[in-house]
Design a protein that fits this description.
With about 375 residues, the protein is an alpha/beta fold. It is built from 15 helices and eleven strands. It has a nine-stranded mixed β-sheet, sandwiched between helices. Strands 10-11 form a two-stranded antiparallel ribbon.
């Protein structure tokens, strides 16, 4: 079977549902994890939008929560159409299949280009922006051969290694994960490269609103998209503290294979990759090191859609529960502090039903009083 033609199953959202999803994810204090909890609790995005003010009030919000309006969502949908883009929901067929499996996967992605590459098996290639000539040459070589081996290359459109990886895979398929809106590519010198990508077998994706200028804190979010889409991640030239290492850490947390290209101990651009090798990353000196490790993961049965992909993205009948009591809220909030805590520990220590605990955490989150951490842990936000 041609892996490039593989598609995950799923159910397409109606236009009305998609607008409601867009309104919900653009509302205050609603991130990907909170979005999922709201859908689970309320049954649909439309019901969740109606309940946001009440849930936020019950969580102790000091001011009313901003709920994104219908006109705001319709303007963004119009902006996407003007730019030749569209939105893809997490339960839809064209959503990257391995991204949907990570904790906090974006419920909606803005996409532009060839959506066929979104569901093909992918390899991430990342590295230094100030890469050496040799580093960029190797990034091009390995990306070209991995692409010819049947994989799409995903990277972050940055200078250096990212750009070299995208350029080398223009003919075989490449995905650019962006930190800003699709209409705000960064850096400017790679705009021509991005246009060449989306005109061929390439795709640009973003979870940020149209018009959003990327900021420093947006790039780690972008990095988790690269790690989540890919089956494996290749790191070429990364300093001891770099965004590439954040991507590698995300990949390891998601259960992806991490590959690192060794470099000279005298080159600070190789300190991060050499440390990854010490920590157990697969040493990579040729494309076959990656292809031989990842091909067994692309068997049709494994690459197929997860079981939950066939479930409707929204429940037709909301299963709303009774509000928690004040005593239950106090016990749950009182058990939290600044240190991230496992939700299972909260349930065990308070002896309160899991559904009630999750609902109280949702209320606190919408009130801006909760921080969510990797691994599903939570902590109280500072006042």
């Amino acid at each position: 079977m041609d892996q490039r033609s593989a598609r995950t199953r799923g159910i397409a959202l109606t236009e009305r549902q998609k607008i409601a999803w867009l309104r919900l994810i653009r509302s205050d204090n609603v991130g990907p994890a909170t979005f999922r909890e709201l859908i689970n609790h309320c049954g649909s995005a439309e019901t969740a939008l109606e309940m946001l003010p009440e849930l936020s009030r019950r969580g102790g919000a000091r001011r009313g929560i901003r709920v994104a309006g219908l006109d705001e969502a319709e303007r963004e949908m119009d902006a996407a159409r003007r730019h030749g883009a569209a939105f893809v929901g997490i339960g839809e067929p064209d959503y990257p299949p391995f991204l949907r499996l990570i904790h906090g996967a974006p419920p909606l992605l803005a996409v532009k280009g060839d959506r066929g590459v979104a569901t093909a098996p992918a390899v991430g290639v990342v590295g230094a922006r100030n890469a050496s000539i040799a580093g960029m040459k190797f990034a091009g070589l390995i990306s070209r051969d991995i692409g010819r081996g049947g994989f799409v290359i995903v990277s972050g459109l940055a200078r250096g290694i990212d750009a070299a990886a995208h350029r080398a895979s223009l003919s075989t398929g490449t995905i650019a994960a962006m930190a800003g809106g699709l209409d705000r590519p960064y850096p400017p010198e790679n705009i021509a490269l991005l246009e060449e990508m989306v005109d061929g077998p390439g795709l640009a994706i973003s979870e940020m609103p149209f018009g959003w200028e990327p900021r420093a804190r947006d790039f780690p979010r972008r990095n988790r998209l690269i790690a989540g889409i890919a089956l494996g991640l290749v790191v070429i030239e990364a300093a001891a503290r770099s965004g590439s290492l954040i991507t590698a850490r995300n990949a390891a947390d998601f259960g992806r294979l991490v590959f690192a290209v060794p470099g000279s101990p005298l080159d600070p651009r190789s300190e991060g990759t050499n440390n990854l090798l010490k920590d157990g990353a697969t040493i990579t000196t040729r494309p076959e090191d990656v292809l031989e490790s990842l091909r067994p993961l692309c068997e049709p049965d494994l690459f197929g859609a997860p079981a939950q992909a066939d479930e409707p993205p929204e429940n037709e009948t909301p299963a709303l529960s009774l509000p928690p009591s004040d005593n239950e809220r106090e016990r749950i909030a009182g058990g939290l502090g600044p240190v991230p805590t496992e939700i299972d520990d909260i349930i065990r220590e308070t002896e309160i039903a899991a559904a009630t605990v999750y609902l109280v955490l949702l209320e606190l989150d919408l009130a801006g009083r909760l921080n969510r951490h990797p691994g599903g842990r939570v902590s109280l936000a500072p006042d």
